[in-house]
Design brief:
474 residues, alpha/beta, 30% helix, five-stranded antiparallel beta sheet, 13 helices
C-alpha cells in the first residue's frame, strides 16, 4: 500500500464505489486535497436519498398533509373545507421534476465542474487489495488501480422470505414513490420509519390502509412513541395490527391475498417496508480483506477505516446509523483520513426525525437505554396541551419527554412526538453536546409561541407544575 506523501510526486489515486451522499462528500473533499478520484456508479447518480428516499418521500408526505388539511383541520367551522381531488399523475410529475433538479444541481453538475473527478458507469468488484474491476454499462471492462478506496454503496429495501411474495407485484418504498396510483386498499407490512411515513401518506391521499407490524410501532424507541402514534393513526382511520406476521402472499386477478395471524387479508396493493440491507454482496469484499457483520454491513472504526487499513466505508452499507447526514459526514472524514488526516466521526449524539404527522424526533438516550447502561434517571413527560404553540395551532397531539441523570440533572435524552418536532430536536442535541442540566435548559430564553419552547417547559417540569405558570414565564 502506498502511504500519503510517498507517491513520488503523483496525486493520490482514490477509487469511490457509489455516488450518493457519502461518495460525493468524499469525492469533493479528496479533490480539494489534490487526489485524482474515480467514482463508480452502476445506476442513477445521487444515491437513495435524492432519488428514491428522503426527497421524493417528503414531497409525497407534504402533499398528503396539505390534502388532509383541505379535507379536515382543527379550524373546521371557522374555515370552509375544500374537496379537491388528488391528481396523482400531476403530483408524480412535480415530485420527479424536483428530484431531477436536485440530482442535476447537487450531484451531476458538481462532477462536470470538478476535473479531478471521473465518473464511471458500471458494476465494481474488488480484484485484489488495491484493484477494482468495473463491468462498464456500455460494455467491456476496466481495471482501476487505487491507493485508497471508499465503499459507499448504500442499502436497498430488505425483502422477507414469504411464500408467494417474490412472484407477486408487491411494492417496496422505491415502487411506492414512483407510482401515480392510489390503491383503494393498501396493506403495509412493517412498523418503523418508512412503513409509517408512507402508510400515513397513502391514507391521506385516499387509500384505505391496513398496517401489519411484527412487533410494536417504532419498537426500538421509547414505548410511548409507538403508543402515541398508534392512537393518532387509528383516529385518522388506519387499521393497525400489531405482533403479527404475514405468513404467505398470493396475487390473482389483480388482487393480493395474505395470511396474517389467523385471518386472511385482501388488498389492491402490498407495500413491504421491513428494513433495509447493505449493498455489499456483489463487491467481492473478501478479495480486498474487508470484513462485514452477519447482515453484510461493513465494519468501520471512528475514522471510517475498514479491516483493510487503506480501504474506507461510509453510509448505509456500514454498521453506522442509516441517515444521509451521517453518511455525508462520514464521507468527508474518510477522505480527510485518506490524505493522512485523523478526522473522527463522533456518533455520541445523533438526532433523528420520522416525518409522520405529528413528527417523531429523538436524540440521546431513551429511558430504557439509560437504565440499561447502569444510570439512575429521572424522566418527565410534557403533554402538548401545556405548550402554547400547540394550543394556538389547535393541535395538542403528542408529547415531549426528557430523560435526566438522577442527582445531577444532566440531560441524557429527548423524545418528542409533536408538530414540527424535527425543528426542535437540534436544540436538544446542542443541549446534550453542552452537557446541560435540565435546570440550565429550563433557564434558557426560548422564543414564545414556538414549538421548541416545549423543551424549556419540559425542563421546568422537573421542579414545578408548568400548568400553574403564566404565559412565557421565565
Amino acid at each position: 500500500m502506498t502511504e500519503p506523501g510517498c507517491c513520488e510526486g503523483k496525486p493520490l489515486r482514490v477509487a469511490i464505489v457509489g455516488s450518493g451522499a457519502a461518495a460525493f462528500a468524499a469525492s469533493l473533499q479528496a479533490a480539494r486535497d489534490g487526489a485524482r478520484v474515480t467514482m463508480i456508479e452502476r445506476g442513477t447518480t445521487g444515491g437513495t436519498c435524492v432519488n428514491v428516499g428522503c426527497v421524493p418521500s417528503k414531497i409525497l408526505i407534504r402533499a398528503a398533509y396539505l390534502h388532509q388539511l383541505r379535507r379536515v383541520s382543527p379550524f373546521d367551522g371557522a374555515i370552509a373545507r375544500g374537496g379537491a381531488a388528488v391528481d396523482r399523475s400531476a403530483l408524480l410529475e412535480k415530485m420527479q421534476g424536483r428530484v431531477a433538479a436536485l440530482r442535476r444541481d447537487k450531484y451531476e453538475k458538481l462532477v462536470a465542474e470538478t476535473p479531478e473527478i471521473e465518473l464511471l458507469r458500471g458494476n465494481a468488484r474488488f480484484a485484489g487489495p488495491s484493484r477494482l474491476n468495473v463491468a462498464l454499462n456500455e460494455g467491456g471492462e476496466r481495471e482501476i488501480a487505487f491507493d485508497r478506496a471508499l465503499i459507499a454503496t448504500g442499502a436497498s429495501p430488505a425483502v422477507p422470505e414469504l411464500p408467494g411474495l417474490r412472484e407477486s407485484p408487491y411494492w417496496t418504498s422505491t415502487e411506492a414513490l414512483a407510482t401515480g396510483e392510489t390503491p383503494r386498499h393498501l396493506v403495509v407490512y412493517g412498523g418503523s420509519v418508512v412503513a409509517l411515513e408512507l402508510a400515513q401518506a397513502f391514507l391521506r391521499l385516499g387509500s384505505r390502509v391496513t398496517l401489519v407490524a411484527r412487533s410494536t410501532l417504532m419498537s426500538r424507541e421509547d414505548p410511548l412513541i409507538g403508543e402515541t402514534l398508534r392512537e393518532i393513526l387509528a383516529q385518522e382511520g388506519m387499521a393497525i395490527r400489531l405482533h403479527e406476521r404475514l405468513e404467505n402472499v398470493a396475487f390473482r386477478d389483480g388482487r393480493f391475498t395474505m395470511r396474517a395471524g389467523s385471518e386472511t387479508l385482501e388488498a389492491d396493493q402490498l407495500l413491504v417496508a421491513t428494513g433495509r440491507s447493505p449493498n455489499t454482496r456483489e463487491l467481492d469484499l473478501e478479495a480486498a480483506g474487508v470484513r462485514t457483520d452477519r447482515s453484510g454491513a461493513i465494519v468501520v472504526d471512528e475514522g471510517l477505516r475498514t479491516s483493510a487499513p487503506h480501504i474506507y466505508a461510509a453510509g448505509d452499507c456500514t454498521t453506522q446509523p442509516e441517515y444521509v447526514y451521517v453518511a455525508a459526514a462520514g464521507g468527508t472524514r474518510a477522505a480527510i483520513n485518506m490524505a493522512g488526516g485523523s478526522a473522527m466521526l463522533d456518533l455520541a449524539i445523533v438526532p433523528a426525525v420520522t416525518f409522520t404527522d405529528p413528527q417523531v424526533a429523538t436524540v440521546g438516550q431513551s429511558e430504557r437505554q439509560a437504565r440499561d447502561s447502569g444510570l439512575e434517571v429521572e424522566t418527565r413527560v410534557l403533554g402538548l396541551e401545556n405548550v402554547p404553540r400547540a394550543l394556538v395551532n389547535f393541535d395538542a397531539r403528542g408529547f415531549i419527554k426528557l430523560v435526566a441523570e438522577a442527582g445531577s440533572g444532566r440531560l441524557l435524552g429527548v423524545q418528542a412526538v409533536a408538530g414540527e418536532a424535527g425543528e426542535l430536536i437540534q436544540s436538544a442535541a446542542l443541549a446534550l453536546r453542552a452537557r446541560m442540566s435540565v435546570q440550565e435548559l429550563g433557564e434558557q430564553l426560548f422564543p414564545y409561541l414556538t414549538m421548541v419552547e416545549g423543551l424549556k417547559l419540559a425542563a421546568q417540569t422537573f421542579t414545578r407544575d408548568v400548568a400553574k405558570l403564566s404565559c412565557c414565564a421565565g
